[in-house]
Amino acid sequence: AQKVTQAQTEISVVEKEDVTLDCVYETRDTTYYLFWYKQPPSGELVFLIRRNSFDEQNEISGRYSWNFQKSTSSFNFTITASQVVDSAVYFCALSEETGNQFYFGTGTSLTVIP
Amino acid sequence: GAGVSQSPSNKVTEKGKDVELRCDPISGHTALYWYRQSLGQGLEFLIYFQGNSAPDKSGLPSDRFFAERPEGSVSTLKIQRTERGDSAVYLCASSKQGSTDTQYFGPGTRLTVL
Asked: In A, which residues are within 8 Å of B55 by CB distance?
């Protein structure tokens, strides 16, 4: 079974629209970490956020915000007032306290149309 | 400070030849990962090094793949008798301590097997 599911394969929005990228995870650990990465067309993965399982506060960073809900095992990412530079593939990832691996979702390709 | 570096950035080889890819992690990072990303796909975990511990090689697709990190810093990924299906971007990442820490990625090596 997939540990991290990003059901949205591709999303297109018009510039200035808000967009939410969904991420659902699965784990039996009580301590775990969730991440979001951005992969622009240049290819290099850029770290966006790390959140531990004990901190359910939502986080806002500029136009980016993250909604962590343990009750639904989701860690969704919202971009407000999207810009063309936001066009990229976004990956959600899970790391468990037990084990060695990062589990990446399959990514959501976001296209922001000017 | 310097990020993760990888060399070469591009490698074109003929089927059957051996290749060697190099990764220089961020100074002081004890954990190092190799991933493979085929065109338009997600990240496939290959191998994980943590300090002096035995590496987690569970993701290596075949015995043609071999990775080492002899002095706990630079790592090389070697692919023997390359096949066309090995064509992909090979990404390296490092983290400060272990699998629950943020991974920082290098720019990748694009391998093309003709």
From this structure: none
